[in-house]
């Protein structure tokens, strides 16, 4: 009985560690893409925002979001969070 309890605890710990690693990766990925989703949702509303009359605004926003996502990805890799 003691041996089976120890084996069951070890399996539970391994499953918990695997689950924690997966949740960690999902959290980091969410942090990378959250600014993009925020900016995208802000500009999808029908509220007048600065620069909406210009055709170049979409490209500027797109480049900004891509640069921000890449910068966050580099930061997380540099800090070894990924």
List keywords for this structure.
mainly alpha; 82 residues; elongated; 2 helices; 79% helix
Structure in words:
The protein has 82 residues and is an all-alpha fold. Helix content is 79%, strand content 0%. The protein has helices at 2-44, 57-78. Helix 1 (2-44) packs antiparallel against helix 2 (57-78). The longest helix has 43 residues, at 2-44. The radius of gyration is 21 Å and the shape is elongated. The model has no long low-confidence stretch (mean pLDDT 84).
How far from one another are the termini?
A: 40 Å
Overall body shape: elongated
Number of strands: 0
Q: Which structural class do the helices and strands define? A: mainly alpha
Calculate Rg over CA atoms.
21 Å
As a percent range, the share of strand residues is: under 5%
Mean pLDDT: 84
Major beta-sheet overview: none
Number of helices: 2
């Amino acid at each position: 009985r003691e041996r089976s309890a120890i084996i069951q605890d070890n399996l539970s710990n391994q499953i918990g560690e695997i689950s924690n690693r997966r949740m960690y990766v999902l959290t980091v990925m969410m942090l990378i893409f959250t600014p993009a989703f925020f900016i995208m949702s802000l500009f999808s509303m029908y509220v007048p925002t600065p620069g909406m009359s210009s055709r170049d605004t979409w490209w500027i926003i797109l480049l900004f979001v891509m640069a921000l996502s890449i910068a966050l990805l580099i930061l997380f890799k540099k800090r070894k969070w990924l």
